[in-house]
Amino acid sequence: MGPKKKKTEKQKDFIKPKLKVGKTKAKPENYTDTSFTARSIALPTQSIRKKAESADGGDIDLEHYLSLTRHHSSSTRKEVLNYIEKHLPSNPRGLKEVVTRTIPLITDQAGEVATALVSLLTACGKKQPGLLELHIRPITLFILSAMTHLQPSVRNNSTKYLAILIEQVPEALLTSSFSKIMKAYFGLLSWSLKNDSKSKSVALTSSASLSTVSKKARASHLNVLKNFLSASLLQDETIDANNISSERYVTHPLSAKYLFPSTPQPYSHYKLFVQEIKKSNPFSLSEDNAGTDSTFTLSDLDTLSSEDLDTRQKIMIDIFLGPLQRNLKDIVKEAGDAGREANSCLQVLQDFSDKQNPSC
């Protein structure tokens, strides 16, 4: 019986089972299911992304919160900006990332986002002195874009960011973008640099069609303009003893001229690596090219550098002073908050004129 049973068991291995219709083949006992697919593998305890250390000692996922600044909801963007302000990173690299990732919100249309962003940029500038100065070019670029934006809400909030730069880094702002900001102000307030009847009628029509919100914003624009003119034209060229240590001048009074410059890109006004094509036509008899060799014209603004105070004062006298006084006097006649701010701007211009002509 032994050999027969063994032979029968061997034959079972070669017997093909008969399958019924509609039935699948039976799976072996050691079968492993490999039909599943995985898009990603989650390793929550092995994240390679480093968290930023906030000023209060805790760690926050800075990358996550900065990504939420592009959220479609304005309330979410506002809350994220407020949260980042309360948990600013302590290292300079994190602060740089915050400024770089949030300045595109300067052109955001939501007023609540603008208020939160102004507070955040102010806090960043106070936490690390010189931070806004290092990013003065991109910040100014977004501010100019906001001042000439199509949406009125963006234009109304544009000078709030300019006020931050005037308060914290006025020298860097004036040396790099004085002429551009003055031109943008004329477009923001619907002013014209030409003195003709057509320009006056356009200015009067634009002023009459302003809404209540725009009129309040115009008063704010004029307040910032007053501070901008004061910093641009009435500053003293003498070196501030509080900002520069006397130890730098122990060897010689001119020792500072041979030390490292205190401003970034000190030779940018030479435009050594910039290729420009002159736009003005020397054969044109238009008003823009009607100036003499010693007088600046509108066509010269794109090539002029405002590094020093004398150049800014000459640009103001040759190009902007007359149109500024003319348009500000028109706003003074309207009275109200805008009229008071316009009168303050005229007082700054009068002080500037008296400083230029002390004998008068």
UniProtKB/TrEMBL annotation:
Cleavable signal peptide: none
Keyword tags: Nucleus, Ribosome biogenesis, rRNA processing
Localization annotation: Nucleus
One of the record's GO cellular component terms: nucleus
Pre-rRNA-processing protein Ipi1 N-terminal domain sequence ranges: 131-229
SUPFAM superfamilies: ARM repeat
Claim: Metal-binding is one of the keywords in the record: no
InterPro entries, per database record: ARM-like (IPR011989), ARM-type_fold (IPR016024), Ipi1_N (IPR024679)
Region annotated Disordered, chain positions: 1-31
Family: Belongs to the IPI1/TEX10 family.
Subunit organization: Component of the RIX1 complex, composed of IPI1, RIX1/IPI2 and IPI3 in a 1:2:2 stoichiometry. The complex interacts (via RIX1) with MDN1 (via its hexameric AAA ATPase ring) and the pre-60S ribosome particles.
Function per UniProt: Component of the RIX1 complex required for processing of ITS2 sequences from 35S pre-rRNA.
Protein name: Pre-rRNA-processing protein
Organism expressing this protein natively: Pichia sorbitophila (strain ATCC MYA-4447 / BCRC 22081 / CBS 7064 / NBRC 10061 / NRRL Y-12695) (Hybrid yeast)
Gene: Piso0_002376
